[in-house]
Write a structure and sequence with these properties.
Blueprint: H1 11-14, H2 17-20, E1 36-40, E2 43-47, E3 56-62, H3 81-88, E4 91-97, H4 102-111, E5 130-131, H5 139-144, E6 149-155, E7 173-180, E8 184-189, E9 192-196, H6 206-219, E10 225-230, H7 251-273, E11 280-286, H8 311-314, E12 315-321, E13 330-332, E14 336-337, H9 341-349, H10 365-368, E15 380-383, E16 387-390, E17 393-396, E18 420-422, H11 438-457, E19 463-464, E20 484-485
Parallel strand pairs: 3-10, 3-11, 4-13, 4-14, 6-7, 6-10
Antiparallel strand pairs: 1-2, 4-12, 5-19, 7-8, 8-9, 11-12, 15-16, 15-20, 16-17, 17-18
Helix pairs in contact: 3-7, 6-7
């Protein structure tokens, strides 16, 4: 039985009724007690209530979960039956890229642009007085123009001040964590602080987040909704909910992974119970690779983890389920990334991506639908000034050091600038073959130079509070490297 609390009871009272009230058009046609099989613009819905041509969208994003931290991605020591079931019912992405740490990945998700392009080159802390810029056109803002109700539950991390609150950037509803400079960490409902807490990663908060998400789904099941469930787990410190302590074979970290799997399973259940699962795109992914050196996460076959541009830091699990559109138990090994979700959602919702700025993401709906493409949607993956992947080849443009401390993995070596790896046969980046392929090295260097020049010419600023001056400009390649797809 699901642990519950009453954190969500005041949801309908505190959120303006006009934001989330179900429409009553023709009483939703509920007087017709028949099953309708309706096809609208290519989308199929089966049910007894009105059919929508626009699917609901749920994005479940974990925090610091490694590529090898799921059963469906090869773990033989972590039990994730619900996520494995999601994978069996949908598509597994093997080459899905993010940034190497938290805030940049979330910025890329919201804007469809690589974080380096929009000035987010580090983790955003309260003391920085910065966050997502007011001029950015965000994913929820675009979906709202298509009639979606938008909600976020959990970790925002794109600015801790009121000016950067999610409800000011396209979300109708927010229940999650913010950090006040004076009061410390708290749980907020929209703009209001409702509880002061010590640790956002404490498992005792998981039922509260889950209640908020379930309530949002129930309130909006009669019209298209977008739910961004941004779990704070399995970020350190690991404090599993009492229900899951001591239940795994991988210690405290494994207990937290089981807690994540439980939350995914509960969301899948409520989608089924509310009759909307068949018309919901459900996406599961992680924001970056695992923290190593702490007997915790596992990057699977890849090298290193969080804080690095080795594959283990920027290549993460991603699963998408969409009944009737995505083939069950399917896999794609095409290069894709977190930046692709915004333009893909725009295509699904029938709205245009912003045309007045560079959007790095691409519509990957053809991959999701299993369509044959004559040319890869992304041919090249670039972390400006750091690494570039083109097809099977990956070149390091600067020295890379291991991320975090050494632990059970042993001492992890650095890699020198100019190292070339063949990811097709060496996904662990263990053998430098640059001496054997000098032409490939030269070609990738030229591609990197062109990408950095383009990014510098088309970058946008991060948001700042009025009293925070912008820093002096510097070469993008000298800043924290961020994922770049081209």
């Amino acid at each position: 039985m699901r642990p519950r609390n009453r954190a969500f009871e005041s949801f309908s009272k505190t959120v303006e009724a006009s934001e989330l009230r179900r429409p009553n058009t023709m009483n939703q046609l509920t007087t017709f007690a028949v099953c309708l099989f309706v096809t609208l613009s290519g989308w199929v819905q089966v049910g007894t209530s009105r059919a929508s041509e626009k699917p609901n969208i749920v994005v479940f994003l974990t925090d610091d979960q490694g590529y090898g931290d799921l059963g469906c991605y090869g773990s033989d020591s972590l039990e994730t039956p619900n996520i494995d079931r999601l994978c069996k019912q949908g598509m597994k992405f093997t080459d899905f890229y993010v940034h190497q740490r938290c805030s940049p990945t979330r910025m890329a998700l919201m804007t469809g642009s690589h974080a380096h392009r929009v000035g987010c080159t580090k983790v955003i802390y309260n003391k920085d007085r910065i966050g997502i810029h007011a001029n950015e056109v965000t994913m929820p803002e675009l979906l709202k123009t298509a009639g979606y109700t938008t909600g976020i539950v959990g970790k925002w991390h794109l600015g801790e001040w009121d000016a950067f609150n999610p409800t000011r950037h396209g979300f109708d509803f927010f229940y999650g964590f913010m950090i006040d400079l004076d009061q410390g960490t708290g749980i907020y409902q929209n703009m209001k602080r409702v509880e002061s807490i010590r640790r956002k990663t404490d498992g005792k908060h998981s039922p509260k987040l889950l209640d908020a998400a379930i309530g949002f789904i129930k309130e909006n099941k009669e019209r298209p909704f977008f739910l961004y469930y941004a779990s704070p787990l399995p970020h350190t410190p690991w404090i599993p909910n009492e229900r899951f302590k001591g239940t795994s074979r991988r210690g405290t970290y494994g207990d937290v992974i089981r807690e994540i799997d439980w939350q995914v399973g509960e969301l899948m259940t409520v989608l089924d119970e509310q009759g909307v699962a068949e018309n919901t795109l459900f996406i599961f992914a992680s924001d970056n690779g695992p923290v190593l050196g702490m007997n915790g996460g596992d990057a699977g076959p890849f090298r290193d983890g969080k804080w690095t541009d080795f594959e283990g830091g920027i290549r993460v699990p991603c699963i998408m389920r969409w009944p009737g559109m995505i083939e069950p138990d399917s896999t794609t090994s095409q290069i894709t990334g977190i930046v692709d979700l915004l333009p893909t959602f725009c295509s699904i919702a029938g709205v245009d991506s912003p045309g007045d700025r560079v959007i790095d993401g691409r519509n990957i709906l053809p991959y999701m639908k299993g369509e044959k493409v004559t040319k890869p949607i992304h041919e090249t993956f670039i972390v400006p000034g750091s690494v570039i992947r083109h097809g099977r080849w990956k070149l390091l443009v600067r020295d890379l050091k291991p991320g975090g401390k050494s632990g059970r993995e042993g001492k992890r070596p650095a890699a020198s600038a100019g190292s070339l790896f063949n990811l097709q046969i060496d996904p662990g980046e263990t053998r430098d073959v640059s001496a054997d392929y000098p032409d490939v090295v030269l070609d990738l260097r030229h591609r990197m130079d062109a990408a950095v020049r383009e990014l510098k010419a088309n970058s946008r600023p991060i948001g700042r509070l009025p009293d925070v001056p912008a820093p002096a400009k510097k070469n993008n390649a000298d800043s924290l490297p961020q994922t770049r797809l081209k």
